Amino acid sequence: MSVKISELKKAKESDAPVRFSCVAILKSVQTKIARNGSEFLVLEFGDNSGSFSTNCFSNSPCFDILKSAGSGEVFEVSGTTDFYQGRFSPRLEDAKQVEDVSEILDSLMPASKFDTSEMIKDLFAIIDRIPDDKLRRTVMFALAEAGESFYSSSAAVKMHHAYLHGLLEHTLSCARVAEALLPIYPSIDKGLVLAGVVLHDIGKIDEYSQGLVTERTKTGILHGHVVLGYRRVRRAGIKSGLDGEILERLEHIILSHQGELEWGAAVKASTPEAVFVSNVDYFDARMGAVKAALDSSAGSEFVDVPALKSKLLSTPVDYGKESGLSSALDGEGE
Fold it and tell me: Which of 135, 137, 195, 296 has a CA positioned 20 to 30 A from the CA of residue 323?
């Protein structure tokens, strides 16, 4: 019987190995050379409940099948639960490609848990609160040109909001955070912030493919979403007749929102609004990574968060439980 990956990952290293079968997308496959000179594969499989990585060695019965496979193909894989250096890494024993996936797409593709139409409605309500008419029209022109891709795209390959409608969810979250913080900083221009925060990642619809597996496109690799987004925003600003000075400031938000040059920013944020948007984006991206980690923890006490380059305590806060630390501190006072 086929199981979801989230169920598989509930296994503990102390448990006896369990045989399993699951249907999953091959998200990535890399061929590497072991110390003894033999080839092995580094594989990542995923469905809409989670993902796992594992190694497949040349003596495995499914090595040849998976070596010639491409990312985005769907397989029914079977094997036994196993761990490597404390990380869930099942031992694969068989892999059969699933040709027709039309009826199981919903079970394979991870997607935002929020209602898409409600998110779009809420985003446009925020856009309506942009005070300047031409600035508001610039946002509308840019979204109209982007079309459905803006609402369906992933926001990343892995780090945060890396699922269907993830870009929409991330954009709306950023816009909500911006509106909540703006009253605290009255010197920041509300219109530029809201326009910038809605459009900051619009270039991602060109940077990423929109298939079963999110991958960077040729254009995305050569230009990156910062430059691609700048182009889209510039076209929209010219089309709406936006004043040159305002357009330049809006473009600067797009070009600088990644924060640091080594993170992909074209320039460092050099206006109050650009600094504001960059930090809102950074905050929501990191919290999106935290949310994804908590969703995939499967009961583990700690879970890896690549975006944070650290482990995260994933157990919920329990005020009714006395911790070992508090007990030890109480003992010191005796």
Answer: 296
